[in-house]
Protein: ABC transporter permease
Organism: Parablautia intestinalis
Amino acid sequence: MKAIRLSFFQMAAAMRRDMMLFVSCFAPILAGFFFRFAIPFIEAALTDSFHVAAIITPYYKLVDILFAMLSSTMFCFVSAMISLEERDEKTAVYLFITPLRKTGYIAARFGVPSAIAFLATIILLPVFKLTPLSPLTILLLATGGTLQGMIVALLVLTISSNKLEGMAVTKLSTLAIFGAVIPFFIKSDIQYVISPLPSFWIGKAILENMPFYMLPAFVLSAMWICFLFKRYLRKI
């Protein structure tokens, strides 16, 4: 446990030296302020201009979903970037033969950041939410968001060879979270074309107020993570 803690602190020190990664950790807070205050302001301005009752309001649930997934994704993104750098510099291989070992390295680079991402979402989502969310819903969203963040991080590590590629892959892989958008705009059965995406079921669960839909989201997330994790282990 001590080796895992020290390895995580080492990663945190590397994060502080990279200003882009350091700022990324605060991106969920900045996004939260925008979602919580700017979007209602824009909604009020639009409804006054077009003389309608609501324009963005019907999609406030979607904003809450995206915020829950964004918070976790940013924390996991930082961890993935540092892991890529360590792989490029061959330092990860040396860490495997220290008391940390491979399992400790994975715990420090994935387990601890994912736990922090989960706790951050639990804290931030009630502060910046736009719709009434029960404690159970917040818990489910935080869990689903954390799993999405892990999927994005593993996609980056599996596909990318360096940090530059990692940045590009991150932009593409985050598109997976937009599966939550589809149930809000497509009502026909064609929406199930993207049902393999866990975010799709998260969107349906919140839109239709059916927590049961989170079950396929968790199962699919576990399948994605297991598949990507095996590929990551082979790569390192």
Remarks:
- Residues 2-235 form one domain.
